[in-house]
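Aggregate trends can hide what the representation actually does to any particular protein. The sequence in question and its structure tokens are set out directly beneath this paragraph.
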Amino acid sequence: MTHEIIQQDIRLLAQNIVDKARHKTMMVALAESCTGGMIAAALTDISGSSAVLDRGFVTYSNHAKIDILGVKNTTLDHHGAVSEKTARAMVDGTLNAAPLADVALSVTGIAGPAGGGPDKPVGLVHFSCQRRGMPQIHARHIFSGDRHMVRYQAVKTALLMIDRALA
């Protein structure tokens, strides 16, 4: 899959999310690590997104995850920044920090080219998404390709999860 195809998919998904959320008068909040604000950028590229995107946090460092989202030191120490537990804690923190949000999504991963290891390879990304009052949904993917491809694939997956949460 090329960058251009993924970018087209991202634009279509973002448009669908903005349309669906506006129709349902729902708001979205984000906590992004490895995507560095790319999900928020995809949504804000769409006219009318101000009616549906409440806020986005770029919590790239562990300190930001702790300080902004309330992720516990023990979670990061025992499981690492790239883990299901951390992704879930990031969504909890996002919902707490964004009382107007109906849906929250978090993403944390290893985009590469460095930083991976045997247990957590480059391309590993954890996602959590939750519609307020509903159970969290977690996804774990190992994406292939260079840093840009990993990040674009993560954005696409995140948007798919948000779209499903809005359904």
